[in-house]
Amino acid sequence: MTANMEQKIRFTLNGKKTEITTDPNQTLLWVLRNQLGLTGTKFGCGTGFCGACTVLIDREPARSCMLPVSDIAGKDLMTIEGLSRNGKLHPVQQAFIDHDALQCGYCTPGMILTATGMLMKNPSPTRQEIIDGLEDNLCRCGAHTRIIDAVETAAKEMKGGK
Amino acid sequence: MKKTDIKAQAESGTGESNGMKRRSFVKLLGGGIFIFFQPWDIFNLSDIALPQGRSLTKDYNAFLQIAEDGTVSCFTGKIEMGQGAITSLPQIMADELNVPLEKVKMVMGDTDLCPYDAGTWGSQTIQTFGPAMRAAAAEARSVLTDLAATKLGVPAAQLEVRDGLIVDSKNPKNSVSYAALAKGKKIERFLDVKPPVEEYTKFTYVGKSYKHSDARLKVTGQAKYTGDLKLPGMVFARILRPPSHGAKLSSVDVSGAEAIKGTQIVRDGDFIAVLNENRDLADEAIVKIKAEYTYNELKVNDKNLYDRMVGADSRANVMRTNGDMEAGIQLSDKIFESEFHDPYLAHTSIETHTALAKLEGDKMTVWAATQSPFGLQDGISREIGFPREKVRVITPFVGGGFGGKGAYQQGVEAARIAKLSNKPIMLVWTRDEEFFYDTFHPAGVIRIKSGIDKSGLIKLWDYSLYYGGSRGSDTIYDVPNARTTSYSQNMDATVIHPFGTGAWRAPNNNANTFARESQIDIMAAEAGIDPLEFRLKNLKDEKMIACWKAVADKFGYIPGKTPGGRGIGIACGTDAGTWVATIVEIKVDKSTGKVKVLRVACAQDMGLCVNPQGALIQMEGCIQMGMGYTLTEEVMFEGGNVKNRGFDSYEIPRFSWTPKMDCVILDRKDKPPKGGGEPAIITVGAAVGNAIFDATGARLYRMPMTPARVLEAMKKV
After folding, report:
1. Across the interface, which of B212, B622, B654 has its CB nearest the CB of A102?
2. pLDDT tens digits, one per residue of B629-653
3. In chain A, which residues have their Cβ closer than 8 Å to the Cβ of B351?
4. Do A104 and B349 make contact, defined as CB atoms within 8 angstroms?
């Protein structure tokens, strides 16, 4: 990356129209964490292999450590901070609590957003589809079995709510 | 309880920890009732080596405060890294003090607020710290009851405690709250013997399942880890790193880095860092530094290290011996000799080593992802030359540790740069740095010579371990002639490990259990006896036998000789005072050698289980993580150059690996609590190795059991 002139970038952030002035080549992850104060998006590897930095861009899970911030111009960006509404947790977040599907919690935001993106596309995933959808998100504590259960429960909850 | 058992030292405040007198804590935290305590059992029974100048742990290493608003807090140097102490410790305290769970707070890992604690590891928090904290809570209750008796004008024996309220049992309207009793008081007590504590049957919270109390913060992204903090004027640092361990900087040109906008270079000898308020620019600047190195590489790599270990000039230490090896040979009908290899392993917490350092006047404050806040405080004091009392370490949430965050190099580095630059410094190690500077689980070799008689009884057990560490190297089995010898680094000999090593979840017990339980399986197969029957025949340990019965029942184990083509493997062991037995079912793809673990049943006796669900989660985590060291994890290196430094080349367990898990915790409410964070991981390697043998007839002597190694072993069948 070379330090370019700063630019204005307009996008929707967690449901709100947002404009920031920044070097367009900066990594989305560090703009979120350092400029916008949204630290729920975590740094894990910086090379797209662990998924701790996952955000939703136009409802698709994306690795924010691999994207220049200019990529989100005109798009709809969702981070973990935007998932709950007026203090009410999203069904995936609630299911993670109900299933105790976390330990250290560091991979959790990326897991929840990956699962949420998956359920937006496929509201009735099979257990195998859940596993496949989460396969590239890493958890070292070993909460996997509970995370799979949590996503299964959330899928049922979300369908029931429709 | 005799009052003479309690030393009231409110006036003298002779006890010190962290260079602070008890009085200072009381002053800092305001009024209330303070109970100082320590986990006396371990400290009285053994002399734990403390860092220089730390001689005060025998006094106290934690305290409770009943604050003037009735809040009960426990101040401890222990930390929370996902293991759940922040949930289970309050359960113990709430029960003993009869207060609602939500009234209990944990203040953890802050060296200014908490007394000295060596660190959070070894599954020690519940088993050694828990009972001490419980006794301190009992003492607090006793102090409060005495105060209430005076206040209410009735004998203490007539009082009952209900949810933080002390009530006259004969006149329930006559009552007083903990808050009212603590108000305006400054009472300090020091606990040096065990007061009577409540019977476990009276518990409301202990023994019941509670979910992680920090879960809401973690699912909403609000939980603050070290890297999430921000200070005015804070800059990101990146440090120039050598290409391999042992390489020395010979020349350097930083002009390329200086040309990057907003970059500052700090230098202290060979220590060079770039600073930028923009992390991307710091990343860009660091690679613009041109550096040359001289190398003095050890001629060791991931292929030749095992030969090097057994051939090295080592110091032999016979750790345990009973009977006579020669007699054991004579009594044996068959003798078995095996050599097992275990590689270096990385911890790979998803949060890398991170620290934020701020110098204010002559005081250095460091927030760090660490399992050892006081170790880091000592490290900064020693390596940068700060008086210890001028260094404060604060531990926010820690994103996984597994032993790897007992090492605190990043905290010392951040403090050094803060001192050099006089700016608040955020240092977040890259994944590459995390692999390179990890204190790896040490590789090792284990040789076993064992023998059985005609009836399948073990008569000889001669166990030698080289460089890997001895935890879990006990025989377990009832053997008349047994010896354990440890070979380690001789003072003047060539260094064996080319990089730093340290504790990795259940340190070395994974390797020792893999070797022992594989050898047991080898003998059972030769004797033509079902491996569980063979074990039970050679075991007298009732706890282990009980675990076997529980796990066999859970799994639905059907006895059979191996190899039986079923892919079922078993293993047992002990760790952190806990007994564990495991049965797995696997599938081997015979064309590729790839192993898939289908089902795992695991039973453990951990004494009283404070939070059953929390303990089950730890068992599940152990099984999942255990599949990594078993099947894929291995640090590849050439001399001091670590070759796999990313998740693409060092593979850890993923979702598709997840087996069906059935975990059982034996009901042992009457026994003291033991460790839960590590034990279940120790049996995974051996059980899977034995299952591969059952499936294919191929015996694996080396971890991890990669597809290539499985295929190679299958060729020898």
Report:
1. B212
2. 999 999 999 999 999 999 999 999 9
3. 42, 44, 104, 106
4. yes
Q: What is the pLDDT of residue B47?
A: 35
A131–B212 C-beta distance less than 8 A? no
Q: What's the token pair of residue B266?
A: 């700090």
| Within a domain: B421 | yes
Residue B257 touches chain A, beta carbons under 8 Å = no
CATH number of the domain to which B77 belongs: 3.30.365.10
On whether any CB of chain A is under 8 Å from the CB of B217, the answer is yes
Asked if residue B398 and residue B340 are part of one domain, the reply reads: no
Whose tokens are 């590729």? That residue is B592
ipTM exceeding 0.95, yes/no: yes
Tell me if A103 and B661 make a contact (CB, 8 A cut-off).
no
Looking at residue A70, the DSSP 8-state letter turns out to be G
Domain boundary among B151, B179, B212: B212
- Measured in angstroms, the CA of A78 and the nearest CA of chain B are apart by 12
Quick one: which H or E segment has residue B446? strand B444-452
Q: B9 falls in which pLDDT band (50, 70, 90)?
A: very low
Tell me which long-range contacts B229-233 makes (C-beta under 8 A, separation of at least 24). Answer: B229/B356, B229/B367, B229/B396, B229/B426, B230/A34, B230/A37, B230/B426, B231/B356, B231/B358, B231/B424, B232/B424, B233/B423, B233/B424
Domain membership of residue B218 (yes or no) is no
Whether residues B334 and B206 share a domain: the answer is no
| Residues 617-676, chain B, touching A (beta carbon < 8 A) | 617, 620-625, 646-648, 652-658, 661
Structure tokens at B19: 């260079």
- Pick the residue with more confidence: B123 or B107? B107
Judged by a CB distance cut-off of 8 A, whether residue B466 touches chain A is no
Minimal Cβ distance to B82: which of A42, A43, A104: A104
Average pLDDT over residues B277-284: 97
Do B117 and B238 belong together in one domain?
Answer: no
Nearest-CA neighbor of B656 among B632, B678, B680, B683? B632
Q: Give contacts of B283 with chain A, Cβ < 8 Å.
A: 1
Choose among A100, A105, A131: nearest Cβ to B656. Answer: A131
Across residues B363-379, what is the average pLDDT? Answer: 95
Q: What is the tens place of the pLDDT at every residue in B184-222? A: 888 877 766 566 666 766 788 989 999 988 999 999 999
* The predicted structure's pLDDT at residue B329: 98
Are B194 and B254 members of one domain? no
Instruction: Tell me the two tokens of residue A25.
Output: 């080549």
What is the SS3 assignment for B671? coil
Give the Cα separation of B445 and B448 in Å (integer).
10
The answer to whether B83 contacts chain A (CB < 8 Å) is yes
Domains, chain A: 7-82 (3.10.20.30), 91-160 (1.10.150.120)
Boundary residue ending a domain (B428, B455, B488): B428
Which of A25, A42, A112 lies nearest to residue B219, judging by beta carbons?
A: A112
Q: Which residues contact B323 (CB under 8 A, 6 or more apart)?
A: B479, B480, B481, B482
Domain extent, residue B375, equals: 226-295+353-428
* B225 contacts on A by Cβ (under 8 Å): 42, 106
Q: Is residue B221 part of a domain?
A: no
- The answer to whether B620 contacts A145, with C-beta atoms less than 8 Å apart, is yes
Question: How many domains does one find in chain B?
Answer: 3
